[in-house]
Amino acid sequence: MLLCNHVQFVDCLPSSSYNSTNNYKKMKKKVRKKLHPVSTVAKTEEIRVCTNRTCRRQGSFQTLEIIKDLSPPNISVNSSGCLGRCGAGPNVVFLPQGIIVGHCGTAASAARVIARHSDDAIDDAAIRNALDALALRKRAEAEIDQANFSQAEILLSQAIHLKSFGGLHNMYKYRSCVRLAMGNYSGALEDAHEALNLAPQYVEGYMCEGDALVAMEQYDAAEKSYSLCLEIDPTIRHSKPFKSRVAKLQEKLIGANMPYGQQ
Fold this sequence. Notes:
This protein has 263 residues and is an alpha/beta fold. It has helices spanning 21-40, 53-57, 60-70, 107-115, 124-145, 149-161, 168-181, 185-198, 203-215, 219-232, 240-255, and strands at 8-11, 46-50, 76-80, 92-95, 99-102. It has a 5-stranded mixed sheet, covered by helices on one side. α7 runs antiparallel to α8, α7 packs parallel to α9 and α10 (219-232) packs antiparallel against α11. It is globular.
C-alpha cells in the first residue's frame, strides 16, 4: 500500500538512456513539471527506497546507502516495502509529496535523487564529484577501522576539498573524530563547527563538538553541546554512545569539583 494519497511518477534515467531525442525532451519537460512541488511547495521530510524483492535485485540497497550518505540530516532516509511499478525500479518515494522516482539503480541516479533538493543547478560533473568524495570517505572509514588516523585525515581532506553538494557535513564529522583521536583538539572542534554550519540540526556534529570540548577541558561548554543533542533528538539519551559521553563528562566534572548540571 502506498504511503501517501497523491502519487506522481518520474524517471531518474539520464538522457543517454533514451534512444529518441523527442522522447527525452518530453521526459525532461515532464520531470521539471513533476519536480516543481518538491522544491517549492512541500518540504520533503522523508525519502523511502523500496527494498522489496524486485527492486533489491535491481540494486536498491546501494541506492539506499548512497542517498543516506548524501542527504542532509533533516531528511529521514529509510527502506520501504513495494511502491509498485516494479519494472521501473529501484523506486524511491519523496514524502509527504508522494512523488515516486524510478530507475535509481546506479550510483549516479541515486545521487540525482538528492541533487534535486539542492537550490543550485547540479550537472553531471557535480554528480561525479559527489561520488568521488563519497568514495574517498569510504576509504577513510576503512583506515579509521585500522586506526590509521593519519591516512584517514588525508583522505577526508581530499574528500572535503571536492566540495560535494551532499554529505559534506558527514565528511567534516569524520575528520573531527580523526583529529580528536590524533590529539588535534582545536582542529577537531573546528571541523565540528564546519559540520554544524552546513547542518545546524546535525546531532552528531554537536556530539563531536562536545567531545572536543571535553578533551580541551571546557566542561561547561561540552555539557551545552550534549544538551543540544537531546533537544534535537530526545531519544538519543537511551543510546550507549551518548550515555558513555555523559558518564565521562560527569567524571570530569566531579574531578574538577563541578557537579553535573550545577556549574
